[in-house]
Amino acid sequence: MGLEAARPSGFVEIRRRGLMLVLSSPSGAGKTTISRRLLMIEPGLAMSISATTRPMRPGERNAVDYHFVEPTEFDLMVNRSEFLEYAKVFDHYYGTPRKPVERALAKGQDVLFDIDWQGTQQLAQSAREDLVSVFILPPSMRALEQRLKTRAQDSADVVARRMAKAADEMSHWAEYDYIIVNEDLDSSVERVRAILTAERLKRQRQIGLAEFVKGLREGQ
Could you tell me the pTM of the whole model? Predict the structure, then answer.
């Protein structure tokens, strides 16, 4: 007899509301690399694609890496309340479009965010129950500087600016639910996966759980 046939009348299916998994870190501490690994191995996880006013970098694709928009259009989107969060970072604006995230959560899809502490604060104000926040720390400032230089994406001046900003960014660590020191990439990825597994099982994310338990108590 199949599972469907074995279910008694009045059976209540337990569904799960999706969650918003935020990874934040100083630039170069590893959040983007960890995010890419998670997306490869977690089929129930999708990346939130932010809108930004910064220029496209070599190898990036519009609507895949970011939605690249003009500053005027970004302002219009802010005025229309189309962002869950937005912030100015290094002379450019970044924001999370609201509708795609809300649709995903309602379907039980988990959404991954690669945003800074300012964006995380805004998400916490607007959707705290859906939010799971993780801050990634570097093992040392020397290691952080070396990573920024090794990736060769920015000029020496930009690297210096990012290093100067890192101390301020790290001062917000206590606002996050979880902290990971990224000494080893594989270990850091597994720790984030453990967090994700536990958060998916939280009672408040289980839709229909109360009705399901009621049915069990009534002998269904």
Answer: 0.82
